[in-house]
Structures are given as C-alpha cells and as structure tokens.
Amino acid sequence: MAFNLADYEPVEDRLARFWEEYPNGRIFTEIAKHDNEQVIIKSYLFKHAEDQWPWATGFAEERKTERGINATSWVEVCETSSIGRALANAGYAAKGKRPSREEMAKASRQAPAPLTEEQTKLKSLLSTKIKDSKDRKTFIESVVFRDVEGVSALTPDEVKLCIESLEKEAK
Length: 171
What we know:
- This protein is α+β, with helices and mostly antiparallel strands.
- The chain has two domains: 5-110; 117-170, no CATH class.
- Helix content is 47%, strand content 15%.
- The chain has seven helices and three strands.
- The protein has helices at 11-21, 69-72, 74-89, 101-110, 117-129, 133-144, 156-170; strands at 26-34, 38-46, 56-63.
- Strands 1-2-3 form a three-stranded antiparallel β-sheet.
- α1 packs across α3 and α5 (117-129) packs parallel to α7.
- It is elongated, with a radius of gyration of 23 Å.
C-alpha cells in the first residue's frame, strides 16, 4: 500500500478538538460483539452530556493476533478506532482523510508484504515444476519440516533451501 501515515491524523488529535468544542460532551462506547478472536465496538458521541440521542456513532472491529499490539491490547485498539470513526462521522476529519492514522496503520499491517526476488523465483520454479498447488505445499513442507501457508511465510533460508532442492531435481 502506498500512503504516508504522517498524512493521517491520530484519533487523539480529533478527540482533543472535540473536547475543546464540547467540554460538556460525552462519549459512550459499548461492545457489540466479543469472543476469543474478534471484538466489535460501537461508539456514541454526544455534544452535551445530558443529550438523549447521539450526535454521531462509529463502529470498529479488531481481531486478536499472536504478535504485535493486538496480541495484548486488541480491545483497547478497537475502542480507539471506534471513537475515531465516530469523530470522523461528526466531521472531525480532513477532506479525503476520513480514516485515522490508527486505521491506516492497521490497513498497512494487514496488507501482504510484497514477495522478495528470491520468493518470486521460488514461486516461479514451483509453478513450472509442480503443477498441483497441494503438491507444491507438500514439497515445501518436506523441505522445511514444518506446516507452511505459502511462499511468503518462508524465511529467507527456507526459500534458498527450496530453490536449491528444486534446482537439484532438474539436474
């Protein structure tokens, strides 16, 4: 993904403007769904604490991960994102920059990394020499001695081992 995170505003900055304009406002968050893998949070913005109906709302979703911030703080990240969405819906976002910096960082984390030159070479060799995708997976796993979900999941050393093994078979 080609974008600059510095071009996107953090939720904290939007929140500061909201409190400056509505010091007696209110923000309410609620968990719409929560299990061991996923959380969805809805946020409500009120211009005045006593308002019965929200001025704006926003939803966010996060999934628990094995590593990174979402391994330990996925609910907190979701709440912040949800508040950021509600603030964007209330007009606290620059034109064309509705997503917050946090949302764009999440998008960049979820985007698959481009394959390296060596990974691309391996992928090409595999598709030339082994026609069936299940057979390619079996081949890779027999070389690296572990379960693997695609070439992008291999370490650089594992990629080299697979390439060497395929090139030996060709001789």
